[in-house]
Each structure stands twice: as structure tokens, then as C-alpha cells.
Amino acid sequence: MSTGNLDFEQFRVFLEKACGILLGENKQYLVSSRLNKLMEQQGIKTLTELVQRIQSQPRSGLREQVVDAMTTNETLWFRDTYPFEVLKSKVLPEMLRNSPGQRLRIWSAACSSGQEPYSISMTLDEYERSNIGQLKMGAQIVATDLSGAMLANCKTGEYDSLAIARGLSQERLQRYFEPKGPGRWAIKAPIRSRVEFRSFNLLDSYAALGKFDIVFCRNVLIYFSAQVKKDILTRIHATLKPGGYLFLGASEALNGLPDLYQMVQCSPGIIYQAK
């Protein structure tokens, strides 16, 4: 597989147009590791040839396979811990106090391999166990990702031992999972049924998503240009109900848009409230 400068630049342009991701100029190694196998299977030798094939055969499914390969990332259960603690100790009590009798809607954007929305669902269950009756109207978690293959895996709720070991306590494993054969575990139905998975590109229209009380958009904005990031955050604001909360990744910051969001300092961590 050839990743010369011109090849790589053409691929960078293609990927940003396809899904908004802006590859750094030194990321040839990442492209090679993600696409080598697929290009060998397709008999494609250069990135320029790959882009030309996608453009000349738009219905072949190759475009989707390439985007899948470049956007698929494994993640952790309860990543960074504090967002889920803040959700349980501050955001849920406030939301349920201010909007009694309404079902909560939570969006997990770019949900990857599903650990985030399922971690949110487990957090809701833990809150419910210690605050009987407060979540009587229930909650819906809409989990979206660009990768159709990843979403298909997410929907099964099944994970191998390696994935289970990444951030999941033994107590939560015993409470929320059941064995599914050697080295595999499945999330129990009550936790899984709260999550609805949908295929969604963050560059597309958000109209069909509806309104949300809480949005998790964590560890994805770092892949976008400053302008695309600003556009996504503006559109996320339009999906949030007034006073709704946005959770970003630990290394991400809002950097602007003071008319749309107010920074809320938690202990630990920072979240953002829609104005």
C-alpha cells in the first residue's frame, strides 16, 4: 500500500468531506494500519486509487467500509469515571426535580463499541436503586455512530473478556451481565432495552433526533477541524432542552460559544449547560 504525500492528501480531503474527520499530516501510519487489509482484499495499491474507486462506484459499499475502518475505536466502561458520578450526584437529581413526570432523553453521540451508552444505562439503574420512584417515567438513551458494523455489534450487547476487563468492576459485571459462552458476556435485558442504537453522521441534519435533556459527545470532537467542531456544538445546542447538559471528553473544551453554553465546574470535572 502506497501512502505518498499526494496520495495521503487526497485521502485526507476525502475523509473530511465524508465524515468531518481531519487527519493530521503525520497520520500515514494510522491510515496504513486501518486500511491495509481492506485495500489488499480489493486489489487496490494506492490511496489515490482507493478514492477514485469510491467515486466511480458509489454504490459498491466501499465508501462505508473505509469510513468504518477509519472511525472505529474501542473504548472503556465508565471512561474517566467522573462524568458518570456527576450524572448520578448532580444532573439526574436536578433534572428529575425540575421536570417531574417527564421521561428523560439522553444522547450518546459517537458511541463506538457501546460501552458509553451501556455505562449510562447502568448509572441510571444505580440511581434508581437508591432513589426509588424518582425515575418512574423512565429514560431513553439514543446511541449513535457512523459505523454500521460497530452498531450491529453494539445491539447484541455481547463483549469478550478483554473488553469486559477495561473499566468494569466485578460488582457491576455480576449485577448487569450474564455469561454467554467461554470468554463472552452479555448485558442483561433491562439495561440493554433502555438503549436505542441508530446510524448517524454528525455532519448530517439533527432534526430527526428530537430534543434531549443530556448529551454525551465525548472524545470525538478532537478529530474535527475548529470550524466543524463549532458547527457540531451549535447543532448539539439546538437538540438540548433549555438547561440541558453537555458532557465532553476529559481533554476537550468548549473554547467559545459563550452565548450557547455555560461552563459548570463540578468536583471533579467540567460540564456545560445549555442557555
Automatic annotation (TrEMBL):
Alphabetical list of Pfam families matching this protein: CheR (PF01739), CheR_N (PF03705)
Keywords from the UniProt entry: Methyltransferase, S-adenosyl-L-methionine, Transferase
Key word Secreted present: no
InterPro entries, sorted: Bact_Chemotaxis_MeTrfase, Chemotaxis_MeTrfase_CheR, CheR_C, CheR_MeTrfase, CheR_N, CheR_N_sf, SAM-dependent_MTases_sf
Alphabetized SUPFAM superfamilies for the sequence: Chemotaxis receptor methyltransferase CheR, N-terminal domain, S-adenosyl-L-methionine-dependent methyltransferases
Organism superkingdom: Bacteria
UniProt EC number: 2.1.1.80
Enzyme class, spelled out: transferase
The name this protein goes by in its record: Chemotaxis protein methyltransferase
Name of the gene: cheR2
